[in-house]
Sequence to fold (425 residues):
Amino acid sequence: MNDTFILKGNIIDSKDLNQLRIIPNGYLICKNGICKGAFEKIPKEYQDFDLIDYQDKLIIPGLVDLHLHASQYAYHGTGMDVELIPWLTQIAFPEEEKFESVDYAKCAYSIFVRDLVKSPTTRACIFATKHTPATLALMDELENSGLVTYVGKVEMDRFASEKLNSIGTVNEVNQIKLWINESLKRYQNTYPILTPRFIPSCTQELLEELKNIELEYKLKVQSHLSENLDEIKWVSELEPTSKFYGDAYEKYHLFGSINKTIMAHCIYSSIDEINLMKKNGVFIAHCPASNMNVKSGIAPISKYLKIGLHVGLGTDVSGGETLSLFTTMKQAIQVSKLYWRLVDQTISPITLENAFFMGTRGGGEFFGNVGAFQDGYAFDCLILEDSELETIINLDLRERLERIIYCSNSSDVIEHKYVQGKKIF
Ligand SMILES: [Zn+2]
Fold:
């Protein structure tokens, strides 16, 4: 079978949050698309498997992007001089309106998916727009790409333009159910995820409907939380009976009490909010690029990691400017150093090991057994060729990984990508 084989190369994955496991010239076993482990020598039971020798290249798990907006990719790298709320109204919403046209959506999404395939990402949790046909067009593209993704039709009925608020309101619940049922029927590797945009975009009536849909379908959920100080103040005015921002989701069963839930950002989460995330097993998507670009702040990530919260990384395109999770790892480390130096010296900076863990196992856990080369994990991996980062120094394997994270233009170093045991390039 073509999804049963052995890869040979320099294997690196995370042993745990603080340690890498490095196997020089090791063997990585794939049986029926599932990883059977990484070894220094080929175990007897696998000796008949075909072997592909990647020689001195690095083999790492595929990276997991827990938060990004496909519909915003068209303008990535522009519009970075404003804060969150004007950024949404002046840039994001006018662009999202265009996805009423399926032709426009198909063009925009084909560029996005092409570039996502070239990036280090093998799995992602993606926001589309409110439009059902355009969201299905994105899911069609993703299904054909070989990546594994969750995609959300973005639910919202206030605060945006008249046009965006009003789509489908006559029969919004039917629209949502139609989209969910169609997705569940049509795709193997592309899953619907319930996606209230954020509390300011959703009336209590809409949240009540989403609660009923969640109780019926028990989907995973994704949204935004405690990103910006103006936003948090606004939520307290819109939802005066909620004790804190996350409690406004919790009231509608949209905060991890029914199924796994991702909350992006969590920069200013209160102790009560943190405790509820811990209790409900909420996944935090840490998005350092967008938190810098729209001037939101720095999330105290090592505090969350110490408490034992689930934390993965998000590029948050296009608040974030790049699809490269290598760059996101670097930015996560860099902003944590500034936080420690300038804000709070009790919150230690995160390490390379921490950042690599978040980009692999941390986010991978949202998908199940994903993000490491353990027996029973999905066989997702990247083959990295770093000879273009030339140096006369003899670097060890950790240093080579560190340089790829800090210095590479990621699509140049990725020679091959495997998802679920299938080589997608
Ligand atoms: Zn976002």
Summary: Residues 67, 69, 224, 264, 316, 319 surround zinc ion (CB under 6 Å). The CA atoms of residues 218 and 259 lie 6 Å apart. The mean pLDDT is 96. The longest helix spans residues 325-343.
